[in-house]
Structure prediction request, 612 residues.
Amino acid sequence: MSILVVGSVALDTVETPFGRAERVLGGSANYFAAAASLFGGVQVVGVVGDDYPMEQLDFLRERSVDYSGVAQVPGESFFWEGAYSFDLNNRETLETRLGVFADFEPVIPEAFRQTPFVFLGNIDPVLQLQVLDQVEDPAMVACDTMNYWIEGRRDELVEVLGRVDVALMNDAEARQLSGEHNLLRAARWIQGLGVRYVVLKKGEHGAILYGPDWLFFAPGYPLEEVFDPTGAGDAFAGGFLGALVTESAVTRPALRRAVMYGSAAGSFAVEAFSVDRFRDLTVLEVVQRVEEFREMTTFEHELERV
Amino acid sequence: MSILVVGSVALDTVETPFGRAERVLGGSANYFAAAASLFGGVQVVGVVGDDYPMEQLDFLRERSVDYSGVAQVPGESFFWEGAYSFDLNNRETLETRLGVFADFEPVIPEAFRQTPFVFLGNIDPVLQLQVLDQVEDPAMVACDTMNYWIEGRRDELVEVLGRVDVALMNDAEARQLSGEHNLLRAARWIQGLGVRYVVLKKGEHGAILYGPDWLFFAPGYPLEEVFDPTGAGDAFAGGFLGALVTESAVTRPALRRAVMYGSAAGSFAVEAFSVDRFRDLTVLEVVQRVEEFREMTTFEHELERV
Prediction:
């Protein structure tokens, strides 16, 4: 089964305390695809300029990522440059040039419209709605968002959240969107907009999946070294949805497993610049990390003893 | 089996967005005892002034907290006044008057010296060392500390950490002490001082228990309302050690369970001012919260499926 992702296909220049990478593969759709393609097919819809190094996407194409929905048009590709603080907890955006992405209007190819799983990357909610109008009865739609759209496109974002099944965002975004500092209240508020499942990503502290009347904690993988945090959230989404499509049904146990796969995928993403960690990563390594999570969260509890 | 705790027995005036409590029971030893006494006996060593409302400790005495090691001397009791920000994430200390606590020199009563479990509250490491010199071959000693001692009594604190079995502190304190921003590296650095187990408390994000070559995640209990965060860390320690003493041995499964009890105890502490939530709390309610934790962290993972 495949996943359709609509998002940015970009070039990033990133500086971390460990080094600098110039004009490397970036963008939410690339990070998502790199992680999700460990589990199955991914169809990308986006736009790049004529400067984009399309041949660098070959390793993802070989893993059944279909880039035929990415239009290459005259102009410059979406470019982002950022620098991380010594503790990697803060980043400064040095430059953002939208380039051809500024006029992006997603057109879902006919062949992609019946894809059962859809991921709306953190693009303008107006564009997310355009995608929702083009896809035909998907089994599940997930979306991400970001502070910029929470401020500037609030009404449209609220509409999106009434039409999707899963919303992923980070804890600060959930607080900003809901006006609630308490995360549980923030998640419940977002669910009140109509979205059934909310996944709040908390960086090193892991993630929480909020179901209708239950929730589930996924820890962050304990890494001694975080090399480059860029794209961790998109890789999380890719691991989450990628694992979910391998399930026979979207059940509560399946969603719980999927969040663990998301956390594992995010933890691999930060081990190298760009999508580099996914070049030789195998699904078995991800499975092993999820098993480690189980080891780190399981405890025996004999009620009768106390 | 009993636990000996040496720490502050204080009066707090606390203001939160939900209200104000004046001169109520506070101090690390009281919070610890309130939580630990749900599981068994607690012996407190400390000092108070002649203004201390000893009769308010009756509900803890009835739960087998032994305050005979708390000297009441002429002068003022340790007093702390603080106010929390609207989101409860920051607090401002408005006043600290050490009173008779300034001259506190712990004397462990003869009857308490062979108590098998010892908790050193976040007092001056010089005093923590004095306690270690007086107790006789305890089965397990745990300690807490705080930023003030990390700055001002570093050498003595390092000596303490070489002589205890478990160190509990919050994530910011671990970073400050170790000079490592990464929590895993910080914990390993602290273990390098000689302490076998490190428990890092992360507030709403739960806690991590670091063993010699393994670690374990305890989530924070998802509360919709945090009423007063004061004492959560001490209640955590009380729940942790309280549950641990009910075990037949300090094993890896026992420690994992204990951290869950710590997290549960901390979550109850913040539901009311002072130690008030522990007045009518039953051990069964704590057990139920630990069961909820299991529900929120358990997932099935069939390796062969992927």
Notes: The domain at 2-299 of chain B is CATH 3.40.1190.20 (UDP-N-acetylmuramoyl-L-alanine:D-glutamate ligase).
